[in-house]
Amino acid sequence: MEQLDAVVIGAGVVGLAVGRALALAGREVWVLEAAGAFGTGISSRSSEVIHAGIYYPPGSLKAQLCVRGRRLLYDYCADRAVPHRRTGKLIVATQPDQLGTLGVIAARAAANGVDDLSLLDADEARALEPALHCLGALHVPSTGIVDSHALMLALLADLEHLGGLLVTNSEVFRVDAGVNRSGDAIVFELSDGTRMAARTLVNAAGLHALALARRTRTPRTPPLPHAAFAKGHYFSLPRPAPFERLIYPIPVAGGLGVHLTLDLAGHARFGPDVEWIAAAPDGGPPADPTLYTVDPARADAFEAEVRAYWPDLPRGALQPAYAGVRPKISAPEAPAADFLLLGPAQHGARGLVHLLGIESPGLTSCLALAERVVELLR
């Protein structure tokens, strides 16, 4: 049986960041990816936003890792010439009963260490974005956008420069860390039956991470969370939008509402909405060929939500763009769950870490998540 040093399962932005961090720590790293290329799952189907860290409960992993991750990510992108931009964003109240929520968000942001916010009245908001309709807004200057594919290319280049290896078309199906079968090794099995072993194994399999955790044998069986998935649709605008900043409504259950984001070419995208999808019996996403399709009939509902803050959106202007799926570890009616990192303290297996429920702000947090994983493995 081949014995490896460190294996990361999943080559999305988080898996590549973890692989890079382990390589920087002197480990020999393989990153195994089930698909034929890196970054084809959650990482390629997001809003590509660098979040400030304002929405999450103070003290939560999402709050801590988003705030630190945002700072690390801006520095990394500048150092590695990864295309990005600090656009800033406005969270807008379009109804009188939403104005108080802006203050609640601002207070939570301050508790998280985000101290560059300002509450604006309607005139101040329109002075920044003349096409905007709102009764008040929260200005978040530290929000930005990033080319997620270029970011992953940079992380992969760092990994390979340090001697790491990306291996595609390699789905890890089962892990056995419960019996000491080969020294200190964790034994894992690929879907084709190949069995290998590693001293360190990190499960960063994204949509499939919880299903793999359920197929992992460890000395202790920690309680694993509920599995649910939230599909989000995106629509695009095939003409310039009159905004320089990202525009976000008040958050909704399961997400941040249908917001306006910009790509680095200045094109506007709208989304995501939230469509809850039941998990497969093993806790993974359903095997549904329409999982990433966008129904053009959703455009009317999108237009209605966007017109709450941009009344002059031309009718029929939105076009289907793409869809993404977020791995939730809380039920639809429950409060949003925090990131869940299960390490040796929880399951008793030295060298093993599961990363579960890594949705937004996972992109922003990727470098800080990687730091935390290395700490857990020490």
Fold blueprint:
Layout: E1 2-9, H1 13-24, E2 29-32, E3 49-50, H2 61-80, E4 84-85, E5 89-93, H3 99-111, E6 118-121, H4 122-128, E7 136-140, E8 144-146, H5 148-161, E9 165-167, E10 172-176, E11 186-190, E12 195-203, H6 209-214, E13 216-217, E14 228-236, E15 246-248, E16 259-262, E17 268-271, E18 275-278, H7 299-307, E19 319-328, E20 340-342, H8 344-347, E21 352-356, H9 362-377
Parallel strand pairs: 1-2, 1-12, 2-9, 5-15, 10-13, 12-21
Antiparallel strand pairs: 3-8, 4-8, 5-7, 6-7, 10-11, 11-12, 14-17, 14-18, 14-19, 16-17, 20-21
Structural class per helix/strand content?
alpha/beta
Strand content: 25-35%
Sequence of secondary-structure elements = EHEEHEEHEHEEHEEEEHEEEEEEHEEHEH
Low-confidence stretches: none
Q: Major sheet: size, sense and barrel closure?
A: 9 strands, mixed
Q: In total, how many domains does the architecture comprise?
A: 2
Helix content: 25-40%
Could you tell me how far the N terminus lies from the C terminus, measured between alpha carbons in angstroms? 26 Å
Can you count the helices?
A: 9
**Overall 3D shape:** globular
Named CATH architecture of the largest domain: 3-Layer(bba) Sandwich
Question: Key terms for this structure?
Answer:
flavoprotein; oxidoreductase; 9 helices; 378 residues; FAD/NAD(P)-binding domain; D-Amino Acid Oxidase, Chain A, domain 2; 21 strands; L-2-hydroxyglutarate oxidase LhgO; alpha/beta; FAD/NAD-bd_sf; FAD; 5-stranded antiparallel sheet
Account of the protein in words:
The protein is α/β, with parallel strands linked by helices and 378 residues long. The chain folds into 2 domains: 3-66 and 148-224 and 335-377, FAD/NAD(P)-binding domain, CATH 3.50.50.60; 86-143 and 227-328, 2-Layer Sandwich (D-Amino Acid Oxidase, Chain A, domain 2). It is 27% helix and 26% strand. The chain has helices spanning 13-24, 61-80, 99-111, 122-128, 148-161, 209-214, 299-307, 344-347, 362-377; strands spanning 2-9, 29-32, 49-50, 84-85, 89-93, 118-121, 136-140, 144-146, 165-167, 172-176, 186-190, 195-203, 216-217, 228-236, 246-248, 259-262, 268-271, 275-278, 319-328, 340-342, 352-356. The strands form 4 sheets. Strands 1, 2, 9, 10, 11, 12, 13, 20 and 21 form a 9-stranded mixed beta sheet that branches. It is globular, with a radius of gyration of 21 Å. The two termini are 26 Å apart. The model has no long low-confidence stretch (mean pLDDT 95).
